[in-house]
Known about the structure:
Layout: H1 19-27, E1 42-43, H2 49-59, E2 63-67, E3 74-79, H3 80-89, E4 103-104, H4 121-128, E5 141-145, E6 152-157, H5 158-167
Parallel strand pairs: 1-2
Antiparallel strand pairs: 2-3, 3-4, 5-6
Amino acid sequence: MPTPPPKDNTPAPSEVGNPTQNWSSKYRGAVVEDLDPGPALSTHPRTPLGQALFSAFERDYTHLTVVDPGSKALLGYISTPAIKAQLASGAIAESDSVEAAMVKFRRKGRRYALITMETPLEELEAFFEGRATDGGEKQDFAVVTDPARRFVLGVATREDLGEFVRRRPA
């Protein structure tokens, strides 16, 4: 009996360059809530950097959201690796306020990606890769809010997404 010809494993033309094909098999309908994102740790603009860093290190967080103490509006965030580098260079001191080192969210003239607990993981990956934001900048973390953007519900990171894929059965 003759041996059948080897099977052609070349992807179909419709699959070439179609990242959503890969996403749908990777995430299978999962949403941000399935990541079980950790609660956001927030600080205020006038909090001393040393105190904010201590809180972050205590919980092994790399990013803290900065909120207005009165309205609880999201103002920006601080990145502990960036602050460590600024402290080492002498650009800032631990006694300085968080406001001196925070990255402020620019609200005017910029559209932000809304990440909620119901956001599909495909969209979260696109956000991390810069395909869902103005300017196309890659992001390390996402602030998860309610649909009205009133409350910060948690923070999702690239690592959370990678861990979800690793632990999910094939």
